Amino acid sequence: MSLKASATIRYTAMRLGIFVGCFVVVLGLVQLHWVPAGIGDANIAWVALLALVVSAPLSFVLLRKQRDDMSEQIAGRVAGAKEKLASNRSQEDAADDAARVTR
Predict the structure, then answer these.
(1) Higher pLDDT, 76 or 62
(2) Residues 6 or more apart from 30 whose CB is under 8 A from it?
(3) Residue 23's closest CA among 59, 56, 55, 61?
(4) What is the model's pLDDT at position 10?
(5) 34 φ, ψ to 5°?
(6) pLDDT higher for 100 or 30?
(7) For residue 84, is pLDDT > 60?
(8) Does residue 2 or residue 80 have the better pLDDT?
(9) Do 22 and 47 contact (CB within 8 A), yes or no?
Protein backbone atom coordinates (compact mmCIF):
# COMPACT_ATOMS: atom_id res chain seq x y z
CA MET A 1 0.00 0.00 0.00
CA SER A 2 1.43 3.38 -0.97
CA LEU A 3 1.27 6.68 0.85
CA LYS A 4 -1.46 7.83 -1.53
CA ALA A 5 -3.64 4.80 -0.81
CA SER A 6 -6.19 6.93 0.99
CA ALA A 7 -6.26 9.87 -1.44
CA THR A 8 -9.96 9.40 -2.13
CA ILE A 9 -10.83 9.18 1.55
CA ARG A 10 -8.68 12.22 2.35
CA TYR A 11 -10.28 14.28 -0.44
CA THR A 12 -13.79 13.24 0.58
CA ALA A 13 -13.15 14.04 4.24
CA MET A 14 -11.71 17.46 3.39
CA ARG A 15 -14.62 18.18 1.03
CA LEU A 16 -17.08 17.23 3.75
CA GLY A 17 -15.19 19.41 6.24
CA ILE A 18 -15.44 22.42 3.95
CA PHE A 19 -19.16 21.79 3.52
CA VAL A 20 -19.73 21.50 7.28
CA GLY A 21 -17.75 24.70 7.86
CA CYS A 22 -19.81 26.53 5.25
CA PHE A 23 -22.99 25.10 6.76
CA VAL A 24 -22.08 26.47 10.20
CA VAL A 25 -21.17 29.89 8.77
CA VAL A 26 -24.37 30.11 6.71
CA LEU A 27 -26.43 28.95 9.68
CA GLY A 28 -24.85 31.71 11.78
CA LEU A 29 -25.61 34.29 9.09
CA VAL A 30 -29.23 33.12 8.96
CA GLN A 31 -29.51 33.30 12.75
CA LEU A 32 -28.15 36.88 12.65
CA HIS A 33 -30.70 37.67 9.92
CA TRP A 34 -27.96 38.74 7.49
CA VAL A 35 -29.17 36.08 5.03
CA PRO A 36 -32.85 35.29 4.37
CA ALA A 37 -34.09 32.33 6.42
CA GLY A 38 -35.99 30.65 3.60
CA ILE A 39 -39.70 30.10 3.19
CA GLY A 40 -41.75 28.50 5.96
CA ASP A 41 -40.17 25.37 7.44
CA ALA A 42 -37.51 25.10 4.72
CA ASN A 43 -34.83 26.71 6.88
CA ILE A 44 -32.45 23.72 7.14
CA ALA A 45 -32.86 22.84 3.46
CA TRP A 46 -32.18 26.49 2.56
CA VAL A 47 -29.08 26.59 4.76
CA ALA A 48 -27.82 23.29 3.28
CA LEU A 49 -28.37 24.56 -0.26
CA LEU A 50 -26.55 27.81 0.42
CA ALA A 51 -23.71 25.92 2.11
CA LEU A 52 -23.43 23.63 -0.92
CA VAL A 53 -23.33 26.58 -3.31
CA VAL A 54 -20.64 28.30 -1.24
CA SER A 55 -18.54 25.19 -0.55
CA ALA A 56 -18.38 23.95 -4.16
CA PRO A 57 -16.15 26.71 -5.55
CA LEU A 58 -14.12 26.79 -2.33
CA SER A 59 -13.44 23.07 -2.65
CA PHE A 60 -12.59 23.45 -6.32
CA VAL A 61 -9.90 25.99 -5.51
CA LEU A 62 -8.65 24.79 -2.12
CA LEU A 63 -8.55 21.03 -2.80
CA ARG A 64 -6.84 21.06 -6.20
CA LYS A 65 -3.78 19.11 -4.99
CA GLN A 66 -5.89 16.47 -3.23
CA ARG A 67 -8.12 16.12 -6.30
CA ASP A 68 -5.04 15.63 -8.52
CA ASP A 69 -3.65 13.01 -6.11
CA MET A 70 -6.98 11.20 -6.13
CA SER A 71 -7.20 11.23 -9.93
CA GLU A 72 -3.64 9.86 -10.21
CA GLN A 73 -4.55 7.07 -7.82
CA ILE A 74 -7.71 6.20 -9.71
CA ALA A 75 -5.94 6.37 -13.09
CA GLY A 76 -3.27 3.99 -11.79
CA ARG A 77 -5.86 1.52 -10.60
CA VAL A 78 -7.74 1.70 -13.90
CA ALA A 79 -4.51 1.11 -15.83
CA GLY A 80 -3.71 -1.88 -13.62
CA ALA A 81 -7.19 -3.31 -14.17
CA LYS A 82 -6.85 -2.85 -17.94
CA GLU A 83 -3.49 -4.65 -17.93
CA LYS A 84 -4.94 -7.51 -15.89
CA LEU A 85 -7.91 -7.76 -18.25
CA ALA A 86 -5.64 -7.78 -21.31
CA SER A 87 -3.49 -10.49 -19.68
CA ASN A 88 -6.56 -12.62 -18.97
CA ARG A 89 -7.79 -12.18 -22.53
CA SER A 90 -4.44 -13.26 -23.97
CA GLN A 91 -4.43 -16.34 -21.73
CA GLU A 92 -7.94 -17.26 -22.88
CA ASP A 93 -6.96 -16.73 -26.53
CA ALA A 94 -3.87 -18.91 -26.12
CA ALA A 95 -5.93 -21.68 -24.50
CA ASP A 96 -8.56 -21.43 -27.23
CA ASP A 97 -5.90 -21.56 -29.98
CA ALA A 98 -4.28 -24.58 -28.36
CA ALA A 99 -7.63 -26.36 -28.14
CA ARG A 100 -8.35 -25.70 -31.83
CA VAL A 101 -4.95 -27.03 -32.88
CA THR A 102 -5.41 -30.31 -31.02
CA ARG A 103 -8.79 -31.04 -32.69
Answers:
(1) 62
(2) 36, 37, 38, 43, 46, 47
(3) 55
(4) 93
(5) -90, -20
(6) 30
(7) yes
(8) 80
(9) no
- Residues of the chain with pLDDT > 90, as a percent, come to 43
Q: How far is the C-alpha of 94 from the C-alpha of 69, rounded, in Å?
A: 38
Model-level pTM? 0.70
C-alpha pair distances (Å), 13 with each of 36, 49, 72, 90, 94: 29, 19, 18, 40, 46
CB 66 within 8 A of CB 14: yes
Q: What is the DSSP string of 33-88?
A: TSS---STT-HHHHHHHHHHHHHHHHHHHHTHHHHHHHHHHHHHHHHHHHHHHHHH
CB contact at 8 A, 63 and 18: yes
Per-residue b or e along 41-51, where b marks 16 or more CB atoms closer than 10 Å to that residue's CB:
eeeeebbbebb
CA distance linking residue 49 with residue 89, whole number of Å: 48
